[in-house]
Queue: 4 jobs
Job 1
Amino acid sequence: MSGRDATHAERDAGGTISPWVGTTPELLVAAVLVAAAAVAGYAMAGWPGLTVVAVATAAIAMAVLRILLPQLTPDTAKTAREKPQARTLTGYSHRRFVVHNAMTSEGYYDSELRPVLEHLLAARLAERHDVNLYQDPEAARRLLCRNPRDSDLWRWIDPDPLTTRPASPPRGATDKRGIPRRTLARLIDRLEKL
């Protein structure tokens, strides 16, 4: 197996690229210098000189390698080939939280979900019917509430806060229940079909 094939096999096995790839010349020069220093130490002081050179070389080599060598880096090609991992659905969880709270609290519905549905209604009317929700709310109402059964939907999406929403709840009053589940489902269904 050639050096290049070994590198590819190493990448496929671990998914990382070794920092030693391509450092053969530098390692050979370092080995020759250490051997020359060991021979010189042995010639000057015998076995104790050789021991000092070996210990000092090992300590310096470890310190230099610790500082200079980078950490193993992930191989981007290997990462791209792998199947993506499942991620948590934080966006879905947040929307579910908003819808749940909008069904339990009218104040929460008015502050969080109504603006989203109102914006969706305005976009649908403008794109598909060339009607501006804010300039012609009666035409918008006729398009949204096509039959008597849907007439109660308008109060949940009416853009005029004076007609459907009180300015502020009386002091000490408990918050009213939010939009009923069936009404919300019908409203979303009408917005989809609009």
Job 2
Amino acid sequence: MDVGAKKVELEVECEEKTAWASGAGERLHIQDWERRSWRHLDTMQFETRINAMVPRVKYPDGHTETVKVPWAEVRSRWTELFECLAIEVLLAARSVSQACELLRIDWSSAQRIMEKAVERGLCRRSHEGITRVGLDEKSFGRGQDYISILSDLDASRVLEVTLGNDTESGRRLWQSIPQEQREQVEAAAMDMSAGFAAATRFEAPGAAIVYDKYHVSAKLNEALNAVRKKEHRQLSEQGDERLKGSRQLWLYDPVNLDDARQQSFAELAAENLKTSRAWMHKENFREFWAQQSRWQGEGYFKRWYGGAIRSRLLPIKKVAKSLKEHLDGLLAYFGHRITNAATEALNGRIAAIKTNARGFRSFEHYRTRILFFLGKLDMRTAVVQA
């Protein structure tokens, strides 16, 4: 015991005449000894370490291996009990740096503990019951760097994360699910990018492709905003500033505005503006999702599409044509009624992970954090699990 340093060290020795045997029962020769040290749970606020000389044994085929000790996993620097405590603290803390401070470990140690925990969790994870999934992309680094995420929509958990957002990325996501379980997946929600759809058709041909209504809404919002910006420039040149500062009014749901802003927006929307007409087409599409059946949805879309095409609003017409090209995926919604809402909620938490870490240089570190915090994995060590 070192009272000044507040440390306790325990020396563990093998009993005399201890022998080691292979799985086949053959006695193994001790090649040499290696001194090892493991961080253990604190003793009365004293940092506690277990030290031991561990034998390295030689197998009949000639390879050597360090003997596994009862209190820690192979090649670990922590006891299994300490790792379980560290996992609980990391999950509960506001940030990894705060957890490191509480556990009195450095960042690299915390990262290694999380990596081992995720590895254990992925080995134990059951894929049974996965029937509805979501595929989505999220920015990773600067520029056009993206990651792709596969989530279990019913369990609200991340199943896998891979680098990129193309067809190959989508295929890697699907391949993380065993083939027999992929055949049980009924539907997959995604945006209208060709990559995820192609990957799904190749790796899970039995899963229905359902285009996510929130991505459709985002495209309509982009078209509306394009109309607004162009019209605002044209009106400003004539000294008309009616659309100045109105961007959020057109994009928000009117029910989320306070009474005063609702009144001013209603007056603005009633004016004969191109932006008003674009907003009307965007709002009218909301009713598409409220239809009761596929054939009703198809009929409503035809009527909406006819009005959008005749609108003479180029951005709205462009989105309308894109939606018509993806109509099967839109109508698939009425058979499964799924969206990527759960995935978007996970994306918000992923953004918080990235912010707390102040960004990531390594994709593998990013993936580990996402699966550690959002994978709902059983990451306990064997001694605690038992």
Job 3
Amino acid sequence: MKYILITPAHNEAGFIEQTLNSVIAQTRLRERWVIVDDGSTDATAKIVEGYTDDHPWIELVRRPQRQDRDFAGKAHAFNAGWKRIRSLDFAVIGNLDADISFEPDYFEFLLGKFGKHSRLGVAGTPMLEANHDALKDSFYHFKDVFGACQLFRRECFEEVGGYTPIKWGGIDWLAVRTARLKGWETRSFPDKAFFHHRPMGETDSNVWKARFDYGRKDYFLGNHPLWQVFRIGYQMFKRPYVAGGLALAAGYLYSIVAGVERPVTADVLKLHRSEQLERLKSLFAHFAKTGRINVRG
């Protein structure tokens, strides 16, 4: 099963070598890896160039500098990479962030899942950070596939239309839910994990801003209000205690008052909210039976 990788990279000089070395060490060889330097002002492109001579399957694509670091830019960069490889023969396409690392058999493991499950459209694994374990610190669900490393069956990727540019984030979220809407299975396999090296925020103020932005994104991606209440309550018990949950609530409420326009279709919104309500029912049923909340759903 042939696969290719695309990595949008913007000012990732501090992390990208770990990603480069992880991909080079893989037990299953890739056909092509396109790294799109998205207008970096640091040494990102120079670092990648240092690898291309010895590894001709790595291609560097340069894009002009841009002022804003936003998620729409990431989608545009990925699509620039997609144009470079869409004519090639491959079965799986991977979206890979430039600040992660993983074990040498990581892609072999995921490709094996595509081979076993014919309707598997999107696959990945949980994420680890220095102070964050997605299995323990979030409302993890096996259908969720983290955006920093997503592998798509090619037919699925083309059917969902790839990544839609959204300024405030959620491009990977939207692609995964659109895949489920079209009848594909999406799955995160907990047998392995990738490590995310870029910290969410070096200071508490950055963490609070990130929580506020998450709350804002929760609203415009359509989180059900009841789900959001429990999400906020859950975050109250995570660092920064109480304040993180309040910042999340503030971002959600701000978006309501500001009348933020949602970039999702009515069908995706309906699917998303129905899945959240089903998960809440499962959480309540598990709590009634065991007295414990199972956030892995």
Job 4
Amino acid sequence: MSTLEAIRRFVVPAIVVRAIDSQLRVGGRERVERFVLWSGVREQDTFLVRTAHVPRQTAYRLSEGICVKVDGNELHRLNVWLYEHNEELGVQVHSHPTGAYHSETDDTFPIITVRGGLSLVVPDFGRTGLRGRGVASYRLGVSGWEEIPFEDGKQLVHFEE
């Protein structure tokens, strides 16, 4: 598997943004985090997002906080789908109940594991959506997840109208 480190732009269709915002808000109304994945194809240094995946997941409310789990059978199903549709995972998106940041759990148990992949964390259970204030962006590097400054993130992720 090659890395996504050469990708300089992730292009996200408006229909994908609307679908994800809706999913994050559904989780928010239930007061749980929601986890979503984007797959697509590469064209030179651009990753074209084609599909949003909302894997079957179990939400937990624990004394230490909240989290979601996607089990191995669901990951296998997703990998088969990716193979059959000639797409690859490039971005994971999930919501947090308050501020957006990469938690220790986010760092330790990502679904996106290819260098150059993105992780977007949306605050306030997605209330203001992917384009709202406070979304945190991270990119997987050799040393782990590295936060992307806000202005750089705006250049890296292009949301189509």
